[in-house]
Fold this sequence. Notes:
The complex is a heterodimer.
Chain A: E1 2-4, H1 9-22, E2 32-38, H2 43-56, E3 59-66, E4 74-81, E5 87-95, H3 102-106, E6 116-119, E7 139-142, H4 153-162, E8 168-170, H5 171-174, H6 177-186, E9 195-202, H7 207-220, E10 224-228, E11 234-241, E12 244-249, E13 255-259, E14 266-269, H8 275-284, H9 290-303
Parallel strand pairs in A: 2-3, 2-6, 3-5, 6-7, 7-8, 9-10
Antiparallel strand pairs in A: 1-4, 4-5, 9-11, 11-12, 12-13, 13-14
Helix pairs in contact in A: 2-8, 7-9
Chain B: E1 23-27, H1 32-47, E2 56-61, H2 67-81, H3 88-95, E3 98-102, H4 108-124, E4 131-135, H5 142-151, E5 163-168, H6 175-186, E6 194-197, H7 204-214, E7 228-236, H8 245-248, H9 252-270, H10 279-291, E8 293-294, H11 299-302, E9 303-309, E10 311-313, E11 316-318, E12 336-343, E13 353-358, E14 365-372, E15 392-398, E16 402-410, E17 418-426, H12 427-431, H13 438-448, H14 457-479, E18 485-488, H15 495-502
Parallel strand pairs in B: 1-2, 1-4, 2-3, 4-5, 5-6, 7-13, 9-18
Antiparallel strand pairs in B: 7-14, 8-12, 9-12, 10-11, 12-13, 14-15, 15-16, 16-17
Amino acid sequence: MSTLRDTDAAEIAAEFVSNRRRAGSPAMGMVMTLVVVVEESVADQAMAAARTASREHPARVLGVIRGVSDGPPQVDAEVGIGDGWGGEHALIRLSGAAVGHAESVVLPLLLPDSPVAVWWPDRAPAEPAADPLGQLGRRRITDAAAPGGHGSPLAALTGRCRAYTAGDTDLAWTRLTPWRALLAASLDHPAAGAVTAAEVTGEPGNPSADLLAAWLGDRLGVPVERTDSDGPGLTDVVLDTDRGRIGIRRTDGRLATVTSPGHPDRPVALKRRSLPELLAEELRRLDEDDIYAATVQALLKETTP
Amino acid sequence: MSTANPLRDPRDRRLPRIAGPCGLVIFGVTGDLARKKVVPAVYDLANRGLLPPGFSLTGFARRDWDDQDFAQVVHDAVREHARTEFREEVWAQLAEGFRFVAGSFDDGEAFERLHDTVRELDRSRGTGGNHAFYLAVPPAAFGTVVAQLQHHGLTRSEGDTWRRVVVEKPFGHDLASARELNDTLAGVFPESSVFRIDHYLGKETVQNILAIRFANAMFEPIWNSHYVDHVQITMAEDIGIGSRAGYYDGIGAARDVIQNHLLQLMALIAMEEPVSFDAGALRVEKQKVLSAVRLPDDLSRGAARGQYAAGWAGGRRVPGFLEEQGISLTSTTETYAAVQLFVDTRRWAGVPFHLRTGKRLGRRVTEVAVVFKRAPHLPFGPHATEELTHNTLVIRVQPDEGVTLGFGAKVPGTQLEIRDVTMDFAYGGSFTESSPEAYERLILDVLLGDPPLFPRHEEVELSWRILDPVLEHWAAEDAAGGGPDLYVSGTWGPESADRMVARDGRTWRRP
């Protein structure tokens, strides 16, 4: 890894090339650019997650840290290749007046023609698609459950839902995929009855629980009750059907129990997934997530009477 | 499905397909195939959340085990061979569903116990009457096992439940025996319930052949005899037969590999574009092209076979085939086979397809190389292009999965010297971290009842129809006192194979 002080995009680009030469010009096969917009305090953690995800999706990863906006403008960067990364990476620190112009550094460093995803692991703009960095991305990934957000996670989520633009997505939604898959599978069998009501239980303020309730309500067209538990995360989902009750209960964040009419209770692995796994899923498909868009609309209808 | 599931939507592509309630019964569960491939793949599927709650795994073998002993064997196999990490909660999901039935294949009582076990699983685990029977046993035992299954009412499905059978190669040893085998299965299971595993077809890179050919505009226009000089399909192993003498002797490389893997690869490379990617449309195209395959008239020139001799391979001293344990000193079983094929269609008229496979070759590699014709005119000086050969597109199936494009470029610093260079796409780097092992994909497809990646008996029979004359030719040579040519272990096969392609002025690639 090499460190550049008081630099600019052209020098960072040149450093990428010389890093590649030094590594013996390996075939890179990078499929995308991932821009990680992050605070200094969580930068290491976010870049580690991006590194793991880059093994599935070789990428040019550009970490952008916006520092203090006082003082003279300055751009510093650490540039590297390989070493556990699938592709190449740069961590770019902006300070002074440069803080307000991060996109001017990132734009020249995007890989030609391939998709761009922008990820805010922690605090994210209220309107991701209106953000100058967000505008560079085809995919904009936020996390309503991240601790650094303003106000409650639900407020963060509904705020972003109001600003929803095609290409937006949130890790609170990604976390639901295994739950949604199990629920959908439970209704696959023709003998499954028609759902008449549903209930979603989770930690108070857990944005995933609210999204799941909105999704179920939207898809099933039935009332969905949202109740609180001590968690962790989501704990219970119940579908009342005209043939009985289908339920998934997970109290330890790892192993769930599935109940369905006429069947014995069965355990099923339903582990809360790690950040790199969530990010890797998010990068698998880069077109608009229509189902998320519909769910967002349903959630807004619920929360704004 | 009678009514659409409101939680499913074709646009919701995050949701994986999870198999419905079901169980898997493995015959021959103590064998290598079951321990190293099938059982670990089951665990990996569970770990990826693709198996239904209540999924149950039943082992059947001649061992004095109870369910706990079997669970321990599964545990060890998973620990040793699974692709994904071991997680307690995944194990907890599977653990209650392990059953073991002790018995031999001619033991009616054992099958009665299996019948009871399956019933019990439907009650206690909710497997819903849906069961797949995986015959990880030699084909000679297929007949006995399916007859027992039928006799004990295990093959009958009621209502919308299903019973399926999974078999592995070899699908017979010639056309006649393949038909016999198929009759055995077809007498008990409808064709749509028979899943023949050719694990090559489960590989991401093999499925990628279809993507490369039919998702792109740049390859298909030159995918024909106007531009393609010839095609080479190679599956090479660096190892010998190891402990497989009992299976391998009398079977040989052509039956073991060419009949299934290589002809399937060839079909995917040579077929016309299917009208859709469903199982029926794909099968039609594969059958069409296999039915147009022709052998050369003179098989002594158009096919070659060999046996590895003792030598040094990769820095180790290795024995020759005839010195391997369990192999007769007079065995004429080939460990290397190469054959030249033609496809009698407008697209491929006059383009030879060279298929080769062998053990104890230079290195382990499977690849398809499409070798293009040379440019019709080269406007360079007489010596500028001496080092330029043919443009090639190489699909690397394993290891180091990917695609290589070979073309000519100027050597820097020279006046004008043009030489072959390669451009690489490493599939491994780009997507494989999450890419499932072939067996996972195929087992999931069996449980989902999704047939596109499984060859049907028509394809199996067409493949034997292609290969049978070669096998007969070799048998006649043997009867006349001939036999396979020797090649030194660790090299790229016998000289006769080199002569086979050299006659048309071509050479084998060094893969």
